[in-house]
Amino acid sequence: MIHRSILPISALAIATLLAPVASAAPAPANHGNWNAAIAQGADGSFTLGNPKAKVKLTEYVSYTCPHCAKFSKESEPLLRMSYVPQGKVAVTVTQVLRNPIDITIALLTNCGDPKTFFTRHNGFMASQDRWLARYESFSEAQTARWASGPVAARFRAIASDFDFYAIMARWSYSRAQVDRCLGDAAMLKRLTAQTEAASAKGVDSTPSFAIDGEVLVGTHDWKTLAAQIDTRL
């Protein structure tokens, strides 16, 4: 689990360095298998599935949150392999940035083709136990690089320490492409705004969930969420 000593993100401090928010991608056309329908909202969050689904689920997740990775694995068989492809549930992923590692991974999952966002998102979640375990071996000098110097250089240091360049290479990303995304100020602003908007809605832990825009109080695991979904289907 991530140590408390990792410095939290300072959204206000970063905000002045960043460029305007990018425009939203168009909504997807109708699909026979809704697992192929991916849309990017005005806030930069990604939605998988039927935009007219009966249940519209929002996941508020952090990449360094072990409970988020557990939720991702437990929910996959029913949520991603049944409810979404059948058009019953649409899933929106909103990223909550808790620390510089979260930011780095979020910049990478948002890197490149929006249609392949969920491939990268699910890949980092599924392998969390392996890359997060590396943290225990890092020296104080290494982690100090994550909190000083130019912002993009901090993220490159994190990507190097955790070997995220190799992970991205599996999806045919070159080091130069990764570095461009780690230095994308507009993307960073968009992700920071997602975190601030989630906080304004009362999201104070991850994973948290909302259905049809209403944050579910006390629901932080797949078993509890599944019951909430079933009552609405």
UniProtKB/TrEMBL annotation:
SUPFAM superfamilies: Thioredoxin-like. Transmembrane segments: none annotated. It comes from the Bacteria. One of its GO terms (molecular function) is isomerase activity. Residues 44-230 form the Thioredoxin-like fold domain. Keywords: Isomerase, Signal. The keyword Signal applies. Residues 1-24 form the signal peptide. This is Protein-disulfide isomerase. It comes from Novosphingobium chloroacetimidivorans. The lineage of its organism: Bacteria, Pseudomonadati, Pseudomonadota, Alphaproteobacteria, Sphingomonadales.
